[in-house]
C-alpha cells in the first residue's frame, strides 16, 4: 500500500497540536507527514499498519511515530455500520521532532530525546508503567492550555524517553521510499484486504481494483510494499487470530485452571499464537481446499494420550 504525504491542517506547526477523536470509525488513508505523532487509542479495534508492520489493534494502544513513517489505523467492518456501542475514541498529539531540542542544548536532556525520536522512526508501542503514567496525563491534557499544556506534554515525553517498556514495530531495515504516485490504488488495495482477509481472496479480484492484469499487479504490489499479496493476507490473518487468542481477562482461578490444562498435555505447554494462528491460516487458505471429511487435532498430543 503506498501512503499519501498529507499536510497536517494546523495553523502553527512549530508547537504541539492536540486532536481529540470521537467518531464512528477511523477514516484516514495510509499516509505520512512531517511531524511526530503520539496516538492513544482509548476505545476502538481493528487493523493497523506502521511502516512494514501489519497487526491488529484494540483499546488502550499507545504508539509514538517519528516524521515520515507511513501508518494507518483501520477499524473492523462492524464499525462502518454505525451500531450502538461501536465507536472510536482517541487522543493524538502532533509535534515537531526538534520541538524539545530547541529548548535546551544540555546533553543530559538532548541525548535521551534524540534516542527516543530515532527509535520512533520504526514506531514505538509502549506498555507497563510508562503506559499507565502517560495515559493518566493524556486523560486531562485536553483540559489544559498555554504553558500548562506544554508542561504536561513535556512530562509525557520525559516518561517515554526514560522508559524501556516499548516494542519496536517496523523492521530495522525499513525505509520509507514512497512517493505520492499511485497512492489511491495502493490505499484501496490495503483497505480491501483489511475488510476481506477472513475469506478467500483471489489475485484476480484484487488486480481489478488497480485495473491491472494479475502479473502486472504482482510486480506493482511487491515493488511498493516489499511483500507479496499472500504475505500481507497471512499477516492480517495471523494478527487477527492473535487478537482473538489474547482476548482473555484471566482471574486467579482461571490461571490455576490454565496450569492444570498445561499439565494434561504431554508436551507440557499450550500452543503458541503462531502455532495455532498458523494452522488457522493454512485451513483458510487455498492449500486446504482439498482437505475435508476429517477433524484436525492441534492439541499437543492430549487427544492421543487420552486414547491410550
Plain-language structure description:
With 308 residues, the chain is of the alpha+beta class. It has two domains: 165 residues, Jelly Rolls, CATH 2.60.120.280; 56 residues. Helix content is 41%, strand content 17%. The protein contains ten helices and eleven strands. The protein has a six-stranded antiparallel β-sheet, with helices on one face. Strands 6-5-8 form a three-stranded antiparallel β-sheet. Strand 5 and strand 6 form a beta hairpin. Helix 2 packs antiparallel against helix 3. The protein is globular, with a radius of gyration of 22 Å. The chain starts with a strand and ends with a helix.
Features:
alpha+beta; 10 helices; 11 strands; three-stranded antiparallel β-sheet; globular
- Would you identify the CATH H-level superfamily of the largest domain? Regulatory protein AraC
| Range of strand content | 15-25%
Give the strand order of the largest sheet, numbering strands 1, 2, ... along the chain: 2-9-4-7-10-11
Q: Indicate the structural class.
A: alpha+beta
